[in-house]
Amino acid sequence: EKGGYEHFMLKEIYEQPQVIKDTYRGRLLADQGIIKLGGLEDHIHRFINAPRVTIVACGTSWHAGLVAEYIFEDWARIPVEVEYASEFRYRNPVISEKDVIIAISQSGETADTLAAIKLAKQRGAFVYGVCNVVGSSISRETDSGSYTHAGPEIGVASTKAFTTQITVLTMIALRLAQAKGTISTRDYMLHLRELELVPTYVSEALEGDGKIQEIANVFKDAANFLYLGRGYNFPVALEGALKLKEISYIHAEGYPAAEMKHGPIALIDEQMPVVVIAVNSNHYEKVVSNIEEIKARKGKIIAVVTEGDTTVKELADYIMEVPQIPEALTPLVTTIPLQLLSYHIALMLGRNVDQPRNLAKSVTVE
Ligand code: F6R
């Protein structure tokens, strides 16, 4: 049932090229410039007329929501708020009939997310679900939605659910941008074609596994890790840190790279590995300066870079390469080495990778 892999988590990491394809299959017709999500087409006016979109989720699904915030705002020019479902439900959120809520959940059973949906519905909002489990409570409670086609996710640490959620959210953002006329035809077509190539890019990223294993071996005994990223890759830094802490029990923190100087920089010394996502982007030069600041304080740098990178390669102690891809799609590839790094470290420490202590696959209590 693990398909020859030692753990479900590893199997699920390696399934990502296939399940990303399964998620866009029949919905993305790149040659014809078409994105067609059944649940969206019938309600597209709700999104277009909404003053904003509020995303509610927990954990890894909340991180996928943060990635969506960047792409929705950039392409579709819709203001987006991303909320922890557990906070949203106990606040007195300002929500009315015009609001659109997107609830993201792999299991479709997370108690806080379900309660947030019920609250939003009571106030008349339109609720759209992005779930993996067909027929789950959240998929039944939402007004409409799109499933991710990740297949069963058994490992407690969410991996393929995250990348398929981003795939669906990217399609929604592109479709809304097209409908609103807020994206150029050139950019729209480019991103459709590149999205179709993501499975190939993810396969390429997976080829770095052997090297990542060596890096894991060097840093497995570290007591702390810092993860830094900017823009689209800030949420990936958070997700990388969550993955490491939940399965290896090593303390890790994710931060937007530029926030480092407002506090966390005090933590940096020769004992501190810092994972920096430093792929080609609008912020590349800025991230390079952040790396220089870490180096000046003797921090150990593990950088996720674009293939062919030379600048960061020279500065970093170790690099993990991912293929070149348009910036908005980079989270789909930069996540891969971070998943593998956590997996290998946890395995080397003898942890129960698929069933980490204190955690359950779906959190049905608040
Ligand atoms: C992290 C993880 C959890 C879940 C969270 C939400 O690897 O698995 O943080 O992401 O409990 O679960 P779903 O997506 O099922 O609502």
Feature tags:
5-stranded parallel sheet, repeat, binds fructose -6-phosphate, 46% helix, single chain, Glutamine--fructose-6-phosphate aminotransferase [isomerizing], glutamine amidotransferase
Notes on the protein architecture:
This protein has 366 residues and is α/β, with parallel strands linked by helices. Helix content is 46%, strand content 16%. It has helices spanning 8-14, 16-24, 38-41, 44-49, 59-76, 85-88, 111-122, 137-141, 160-180, 185-206, 209-219, 234-248, 284-296, 311-315, 331-348; strands at 28-29, 34-35, 53-57, 80-84, 100-105, 126-131, 144-147, 224-229, 251-256, 273-277, 300-306, 318-322. The strands form three sheets. Strands 4-3-5-6-7 form a five-stranded parallel sheet, sandwiched between helices. Strands 9-8-10-11-12 form a five-stranded parallel sheet, with helices on both faces. Strands 1-2 form a two-stranded antiparallel sheet. Strand 10 (273-277), helix 13 and strand 11 form a beta-alpha-beta unit. Helix 2 (16-24) packs antiparallel against helix 10 (185-206). It is globular, with a radius of gyration of 20 Å. The two termini are 31 Å apart. 54% of the residues are buried. The mean pLDDT is 97. Fructose -6-phosphate is lined by residues 58-61, 105-107, 110, 113, 156-158, 242, 246, 362-363.
Secondary structure: elements and pairs:
Elements: H1 8-14, H2 16-24, E1 28-29, E2 34-35, H3 38-41, H4 44-49, E3 53-57, H5 59-76, E4 80-84, H6 85-88, E5 100-105, H7 111-122, E6 126-131, H8 137-141, E7 144-147, H9 160-180, H10 185-206, H11 209-219, E8 224-229, H12 234-248, E9 251-256, E10 273-277, H13 284-296, E11 300-306, H14 311-315, E12 318-322, H15 331-348
Parallel strand pairs: 3-4, 3-5, 5-6, 6-7, 8-9, 8-10, 10-11, 11-12
Antiparallel strand pairs: 1-2
Helix pairs in contact: 2-9, 2-10, 5-9, 5-12, 9-10, 10-15, 11-15, 12-15
The protein binds fructose -6-phosphate.
Fructose -6-phosphate is lined by residues 58-61, 105-107, 110, 113, 156-158, 242, 246, 362-363.
